[in-house]
Amino acid sequence: MDQYRAPDSIVIHPSILYFGTPVVLISTRNADGSTNITPMSSAWALADRVVIGLAAGGQGVANLQRERECVLNLASEDLQEATERMAPTTGSDPVPDWKQVNGYRHVADKFALAGLHAVASHEVSAPRIAECPLQLEARVALMVERPVDDWRHGPGGYVIAELQVLRVHAHEDIVVPGTQHIDPVRYQPLFYLFRHYVGRGTGLGKTFKAEV
C-alpha cells in the first residue's frame, strides 16, 4: 500500500510571481542615437523566438516600439551588482510619476553607471553588452499591450513582445569546442527569484534531448 502523504499547503496571494527566470539586459537605441539598457526577467524562448514582458510606459518599450529591434544580453552571476546598480534607474526624462514614487531616478548613460562596455552588433543598431556571455540580436515580430487594472495608477499595463533572434553571440569559453552548443557547466546565468538574485546552483542531470 502506498504510504505517501502529500505535504501541507496553503493558499497565498503573493505580490509578484517571479518564480525563477533569467536576468536579461535589453539594449535599445534611443531617439537621439544613444543606448538604453533595461534590466528585466520575464522571458522565454521557443525555436528562434524569444517572448518578453515589460511594464508599459518605460524608455525601453518606447524604443522597441519605434526601432523594432534590440539586443537581449543574458547576464551572468558575476553581473549581479552591475544589474542592481541599473535596477532603480530609467532612461525616461522626466521620470514618470509612478517610477518617482517607487524610487527611480533618470540615468542617461547606464553603461557608465554599471561599468559595462558596448560592442557593435551585426544585424541591429543597438550595441551588445560585452560582459554578457550570451548576446542575442533580435527584431520585433509582434507587440501587444495589455492593461492591468491593479496597475492603473502606475504603468497602466504591460507589453508582450515576440522577438525573432537574428544572430547569437557567445563568449568562446562557454561554447563546447568544435560545436555550436553552450557548455551547461561553464555557463553561469543569473536568475531572478521572487525579487532575489540567485545563481544556477549544482547541476542535477540532463534531459534525453541534451546534445552535450
Through-space gap between termini: 40 Å
Placed side by side, the strands forming the largest sheet appear as: 3-2-6-11-12-5-4
Biggest sheet statistics? 7 strands, antiparallel
What low-confidence regions span 5 or more consecutive residues with pLDDT below 50?
none
Mean pLDDT: 95
Helices, by number, come to 4
- What is the H/E string? EEEEEHEHEHEHEEEEEE
Name the structural class: mainly beta
Helix content: 10-25%
Query: In what range is the share of β-strand residues?
Result: 35-45%
Could you tell me the radius of gyration in angstroms?
Answer: 19 Å
Question: Shape from CA axes?
Answer: globular
Number of distinct beta strands: 14
Could you outline the blueprint of secondary structure elements for this entry?
Blueprint: E1 19-22, E2 24-29, E3 35-40, E4 43-46, E5 49-55, H1 59-67, E6 69-74, H2 80-86, E7 89-90, H3 97-101, E8 105-106, H4 110-114, E9 118-119, E10 128-129, E11 134-147, E12 157-170, E13 191-193, E14 196-198
Parallel strand pairs: 7-8
Antiparallel strand pairs: 1-13, 2-3, 2-6, 4-5, 5-12, 6-11, 9-10, 11-12, 13-14
